[in-house]
Amino acid sequence: MRVLVIGGGIAGTATALGLHKAGVDVTVFEAHPDTAEDIGAFLTLASNGMRALAELDATAAVTAVGFPLTSLRLLDSKGTEVTHAPLGEADDPALRYRCLRRGELNAALQGEAVRRGIRLRHGARLVAVTDGPDGVTARFADGTTATGDLLVGADGLKSAVRRLLFPEARPGYCGQRVYYGYTGTAPVTAAQGAITMVRGSATAFGYTVSPQGRTYWFARAGGGPLPAAAAAAPSAGLRAQLLPLLREDRTPAADLVATADGEIMVVNAMEMPLGAPWHTGRVLLAGDAAHAASPATGQGASMALEDAVVLAKAVRDLPDPERAFTAYERHRRPRTEHNITVSGGLSRGTRAPSRPAPVAARPAGPDERLLRQLAWDTPLSPEPY
Ligand SMILES: Cc1cc2nc3c(=O)[nH]c(=O)nc-3n(C[C@H](O)[C@H](O)[C@H](O)COP(=O)(O)OP(=O)(O)OC[C@H]3O[C@@H](n4cnc5c(N)ncnc54)[C@H](O)[C@@H]3O)c2cc1C
How many CB atoms lie within 10 A of CB 362? Predict the structure, then answer.
């Protein structure tokens, strides 16, 4: 079995780690010439994503970068602390939430893939896919081709694989712009390992301070999608867009952004429509290519890591591509579409942000179904558990 994975981001490299662990011959094709793509942005991996990494034996590679988050503080629009509670599976060092720069997470996963002997080609931008009875062929912008038994489109929100096979399935704007940046001069102090969320009148704001004293922050604000030229504005222009919204409240957010010394970035939050197709013939979509969600729940990367484990188990345990892809989709679609719905609702303001549940009311860990889906030694059933 030879598998071509298109995209060397989170879903693609993790899928390659899973397939390789399952004994499959896998090659990753990444459009960018190096690992440093989108180095500016940061994200948090949740405990469920860290659990998927553990099943791929990749905990050590990822915990070598970034820093752990163990508690969540919630402030109201007056800056008053509403709650401060443990976050996820904070007691287990391997499963704690983790905050990382996207570039360093990609580099860690790609480095681990290469260390295990997985082939990874940079500068390979897919431009065409030909699916046939005996195999699937990918063609790249440099004129080269590769043929395999299966092809996984893990090429993100703007997936070329999806555009070629399902041109009608397109992501849409979900009502928020997301600003984010860093500062070394923030007028805030934060307990080590705490992430603070501020429920502002016009924004949802969050920040955390790294062990090196650098503050990572983001703000989600409503309004129409920013045109490309406005999104590419210099940091001073983006700061000027954001500050009036933050100054409506008496929270640390406005001062933090006003003093931010690093670059400020902004993206339009996008999501895939529910029910979009995921597979045809020998080709399957994974990660954001299949089920991109608004960033509000902070689950996109963790969902991509879960995909990787379940897809590898499906290919390992089920006898042909059609059955493997169908089982994968049955297991993954309800969970990922729930995330699209909840996250989109938060972005559109149609769903109130949930407070962290009181410690006593919180379930002890993840649900049993997810544990079975992810447990490497548990065979993947053709039907959801
Ligand atoms: C502002 C923002 C904040 C977010 N914060 C969080 C967070 O805190 N926690 C979280 O879990 N998620 C977060 N997310 C979501 C998360 O970033 C995505 O869900 C995740 O990156 C999806 O991984 P992926 O591998 O599917 O796609 P990507 O990470 O986009 O990777 C796709 C890869 O495919 C490559 N590629 C693209 N086209 C081609 C081609 N034609 N040929 C070859 N290669 C190609 C790209 O170069 C890239 O390396 C956030 C998203 C945004 C926008």
Answer: 12
Q: How far is the CA of 12 from the centre of ligand 1 (A)?
A: 10
Where among 271, 300, 326 does a domain terminate? 271
Report the pLDDT averaged over residues 253-278: 92
| E-strand stretches of the chain | 2-6, 25-30, 42-45, 67-69, 71-75, 81-86, 97-101, 119-122, 126-131, 136-140, 145-148, 150-153, 172-183, 194-199, 203-209, 215-222, 264-271, 279-280, 283-285
Quote the pLDDT of residue 363. Answer: 47
Q: 265 and 277 share a domain?
A: no
Listed residues 245, 271, 297: the one ending a domain: 271
Mutate to test the pocket of ligand 1, among 30, 152, 302 (most ligand atoms within 8 A of CB): 30
Please give the share of the chain, as a percent, with pLDDT higher than 90.
81
Structure tokens at 112: 């681990």
Q: Which two tokens stand for residue 303?
A: 């969902």
Q: What pLDDT shows up at residue 358? A: 43
Q: Where are the beta strands (DSSP E) in 190-313?
A: 194-199, 203-209, 215-222, 264-271, 279-280, 283-285
Does ligand 1 have an atom closer than 6 angstroms to the CB of 7?
yes
Query: Do 43 and 113 reside in the same domain of the chain?
Result: yes
According to DSSP, residue 318 is labeled S
Range of the domain at 303: 2-67+102-171+272-374
pTM of the full structure:
0.95
- Closest residue by CA, ligand 1 atom 20: 301
- Pocket probe for ligand 1: among 5, 43, 152, 203, the residue whose CB has the most ligand atoms within 8 Å is 43
CB 377 within 8 A of CB 309: no
CB proximity list for 74: less than 8 A, separation 6 or greater: 81, 82, 83, 84, 196, 197, 199, 355, 356
Select the more confidently predicted residue: 63 or 189.
Answer: 63
Establish whether residue 206 lines the binding site of ligand 1, counting it when its CB lies within 6 angstroms of any ligand atom. Answer: no
pLDDT digits over 345-384, tens only?
Answer: 999 986 655 544 444 444 456 789 999 999 999 999 988 8
